[in-house]
């Protein structure tokens, strides 16, 4: 099972409440390293105009990847988020908190995507529990 580090363990009294500074996996599990999931609509492949919808679609796409590997969002150790504009971070944070109540460690990076329709991408590392 994942053990989440608390902010006080790293000497910070009041870190961001929506994430953990780190997660430690047990030696009795395998790890899943995902490729990036983007916010295209699962049925059509189209990209919604707004970043919140793209983030939600990407989370649902990631859910399918996690489930195919016999794991879930509760077992994510690290999430890496990419946004195409810094103004999108608050919208992405809102969606992120819905899918990651366990608050894994996380990074969010502003990037330039090759496709201008793309506003959000994510990848993660998750533990796969031993059977």
UniProtKB/TrEMBL annotation:
Gene3D superfamilies given in the database record: RutC-like (3.30.1330.40)
Coiled coil: none
Domain of life from the UniProt record: Eukaryota
Pfam families in the cross-refs: Ribonuc_L-PSP (PF01042)
SUPFAM superfamilies found in the cross-reference section: YjgF-like
GO MF term set: deaminase activity
One cellular component term from this protein's GO annotations in UniProt: cytosol
Similarity comment text for this entry: Belongs to the RutC family.
Name the UniProt record assigns to this protein: LAQU0S03e10022g1_1
Organism placement in taxonomy: Eukaryota, Fungi, Dikarya, Ascomycota, Saccharomycotina
């Amino acid at each position: 099972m994942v053990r989440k580090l608390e902010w006080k363990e790293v000497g910070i009294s009041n870190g961001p409440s929506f994430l953990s500074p780190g997660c430690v996996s047990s030696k009795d599990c395998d790890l899943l390293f995902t490729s990036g999931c983007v916010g295209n609509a699962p049925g059509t492949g189209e990209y919604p105009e707004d970043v919140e919808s793209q983030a939600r679609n990407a989370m649902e796409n990631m859910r399918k990847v996690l489930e195919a590997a016999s794991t879930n969002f509760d077992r994510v150790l690290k999430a890496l988020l990419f946004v195409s504009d810094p103004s999108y971070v608050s919208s992405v944070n809102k969606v992120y908190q819905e899918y990651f109540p366990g608050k894994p460690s996380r990074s969010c990076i502003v990037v330039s995507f090759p496709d201008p329709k793309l506003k959000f991408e994510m990848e993660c590392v998750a533990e796969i529990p031993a059977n």
